[in-house]
Amino acid sequence: MAITDAPKIVTARLGYEDSHTLERYLATGGYEGLRKALGMTPEAVAAEVDAASLLGRGGAGFPAGRKWSMLRQNPLTYLVVNGDESEPATFKDHLLIERDPHQILEGVLISAYALQVSQAFIYLRGEFALGLERLQSALNDAYAHGAAGADIFGSGFSLDVVVHPGAGAYICGEETALLESLEGKRGFPRIKPPFFPAAIGLYGEPTVVNNVETMANIPWIVQHGGAAFAALGEGRSTGTRLFALAGHVRKPGNYELEMVKTTFRDLIYAPVLGGGIRGSNTLKAFIPGGVSAPWFGPDQVDLPLGQDEVGNAGSMLGSGSVVVMDSATCMVRAAWRITKFFSRESCGQCTPCREGSGWLERIMYRIEHGAGREEDLDLLMDLCDNISPGVAWPPQQTTICVLGPSIPSSIASGIRMFRDEFLVHVKEGGCPFD
Amino acid sequence: MTHLNGDIRQRALDLVTLYPEPRSALIPLCHLAQEQDGWLHPEAIEEIAELCGVTAAEVRGTATFYDMLYTEPVGTYVVAVCTNIACMLDGALELLEHAEGALGVRAGGTTPDGVFTLHEAECLADCDQTPCVQVNHRYVGAQTPESFDRLLADLRSGALAETVPSHGTLVRVKRSVGLVADRGTIVAERAAAAEAQAARAAASSGGGGSG
Which numeric CATH code is attached to B6-63? Predict the structure, then answer.
C-alpha cells in the first residue's frame, strides 16, 4: 500500500481554496457528525471516542477517551481547547485553524455534547491573527446555522462557544498555564496534584483540555465509528496524524500520515512527502517531536511514526513536528538557539528552569562564539542534571511543569552525538561552520 | 469620561459578558485597548481593571507577562523576524541582522519616526515559509534580505494597508452574538441529562443500583 493511501481524516477539505467557509464545509459533509452525535446518547458518543483510542495530539499523547472519563461530576464543567501552538517548528494546528475552522468547531460541539459541559472555550495563540478571524467567522456562521447556541439543530442541547485570544507566551500551551491565562492571569502552570484540570480546572471547576487537532478528528470518528479509526495505525497509535516537517528538506510542509505504517525515512525522503535533503547534502540529525524531544541520528531514520515506537527509542513523537538538519548544520548553534528559546520562555516560577536555562544559554553562546572551555562540556551536563536528574528519557522532573525537563534535551543530544564538534569549537576558538 | 472610546468601549462591555468571571476578559480587553492606542495606556489599564473587577496592578502584572502586550508605545508596524530553529536553519539570523541594518535599530527598538518596531521572535508556527516574518501578527511570507527591503517600502507607502492593519488591531471580525444559552438554562438542561444518563446506566446494569 502506498504511504498516501490512508484516508485523510483532518486534511480532507484542504484542497479547496474556500475550505474555511461554511458553504464548502456543508457541501463536504460538514456538521453531519454533529447531527448524528445529537441523535445518540452522550455516553454512546464518548464510547466511540474511547473505542477509537485517539491519543491527544498536543504533545503528551494521553488517550482522549480516558481524559474524558476522568472528568469529575459537577453542576458546572468546561471544555477548553488548546490552540496555543508554540512548540518550535510545529505548524499543524495553524493549518487546521486557518484552513478548516468548522471542522474544529464541529469537534468541539460534539465533544461538549458527549461531556455535557456548561461552556466551551477555544484558546488560540494571539499571533494567529488570521486564524482568530477565520475561527470567529466560522463560529458566527455556526450560530446562524443553528449548529451552536441554544437548542442546537432542535436537539434540546444548548452550548455557547467562545474564541479567546492569547497574547504571546509559549508556556500557555501547558494546560494549567493556559487555564490561568484564560482566567486573566500570568501564564504560571499550576502544581499537580491537586490541580489536575479534570478535578480542579477553569475557575476551580472540572475541565477537559484538548488540543485543536484532537478536536478535528472527532467528527470523522463519530461519522465512521471508533472502530474504523482504531483500525488505522498500529498498537496504541491509532488513526492518522498530521506531521509538520521542517528544516533542510526539499518540501517542508504538513503531511497527514497513517501512524506507525510510515517511517521517518518515508516522511523525509519520499518524493510525495519531504522529497529528501536539500541540495547535495546528507542527513546529519533530526528532532522527532518538537524541540523538547531528544535528537535522533541517521541510524534511527527507519523508526515508524508511532508514539511508543519513538518513545522506546529514547525520544518522543511529541507535538508532531520533525526538524531535519543536514550535514552543513552547526549542532552547537542549533542547540544554543533551542536553549535560548527555553530561557526566554521559562515562566520563572521554578529555580532549576529559570536559572538553569539562562546559565546553559550563556555557556552555549560562548562555545559557539569561540570563548568556550573544554570543561564547559561537563559543566553543561552537570547543569542539565540539576534541571532533570540523570538527564535520561523520559526525563525526571524537578519543576512544576514539563518545560524544565525539556530544556536539557537539545544540549545533551548535541554533546552525546556530536562531542567532537563541540570540542572543535573550543579548540579552534570559534564556529567551524562560519 | 472613559478612556476607551465609543465602539471600543461597547465591545469591551460585550466581551466581559462572554465569561463566567469578568476577569477572563482581561487579555481580550488589553488587545482592544491596543487597537485604540497601539499600546496599553495607563488610563486604559485603569479602565480594564474596573471592567474586569481587579486592580490596575493585576492588569499590569498580567500584561507584562505577555510578548504581545505593550506598556510603552511601539511603532505603527511591529515587524517580527523569527530566528527559532526552523528559520535559523534557513538564514534567519542573517535576515535579522539585515533588518537591523535596514531599520537602523537593534531588535527590540523602534525607529525614530515611530513607524517600525523590530522584534526577534520565537517560532511563529509557519515553518514551511522560512525565514518567517510577521508584521502586526500578519504573516507576510518567507523573506530574503531583498524582499524584506521591498516589504518595508510597501509598508511605508501604504500598499499593504489592506492585509496589515496598524499595530493593535488583532482581529477585524467581531463576534456576532452574545451568549445565547443562559447559565440557568444550561444548569437545568445538564441536570436533566445527567438524570437520564444515570437512569440508563441503572437500567443497563439490571436496575439494582442507586444511580
Answer: 1.10.10.1590
User: What are A44-65's pLDDT values in tens digits?
Assistant: 999 999 999 999 999 899 999 9
CB contact under 8 A, B171 and A75: no
CB spacing of A75 vs B21 below 8 angstroms = no
Residue A1 — pLDDT band, cuts 50, 70, 90?
Answer: low
Number of domains in chain A: 3
Upper half-sphere CA count for residue A112 (Cβ side, 13 Å): 29
Instruction: Provide the 3-class DSSP secondary structure of residue A105.
Output: helix
For B105-109, the CB contacts below 8 A with 24+ separation are B107/B81
Query: Residue B158 in contact with residue B164, Cβ under 8 Å?
Result: no
**Minimum distance, in Å, between the CA of residue B26 and any CA atom of chain A:** 5
Whether residue A331 is predicted with pLDDT greater than 70 in this model: the reply is: yes
User: What pLDDT is stored for residue A2 in this prediction?
Assistant: 73
Same structural domain for residues A257 and A225? no
B residues 161-200 near A, CB within 8 Å?
170-177, 179-181, 183, 185-187, 189-191, 193-194, 197, 200
Q: Does residue B128 belong to the interface with chain A, where contact is any CB pair within 8 Å? A: yes
Instruction: For domain B77-157, give the fold.
Output: Glutaredoxin (3.40.30)
Q: Is the pLDDT higher at B211 or at A342?
A: A342
- Same structural domain, A283 and A354: no
Kindly state whether residues A301 and A360 are assigned to the same domain. Answer: no
Measured CA to CA, the distance from residue B69 to residue A251 in angstroms comes to 35
Write out chain B residues lying below 8 Å of A140, CB-based.
173, 175-177
| Angle (deg, nearest 10), helices B145-157 and B92-103 | 40
Convert the pLDDT of each residue in A83-108 to its tens digit: 999 999 999 999 999 999 999 999 99
| ipTM of model | 0.96
Last-in-domain residue among A230, A263, A279: A230
**Which domain, by its residues, includes A302?**
233-326
Nearest CA of chain B to the CA of A160: how many Å?
6
**Domain CATH number, residue A221:** 3.40.50.11540
Cross-chain residue pair A129–B170, CB shorter than 8 Å: yes
Q: Which residues contact A79 (CB under 8 A, 6 or more apart)?
A: A108, A111, A112, A115, A117, A119, A120, A121, A207, A208, A210
Give the best residue of A79, A91, A127 to mutate against chain B (max B CB count within 10 A).
A127
Asked if residue B207 has pLDDT above 60, the reply is no
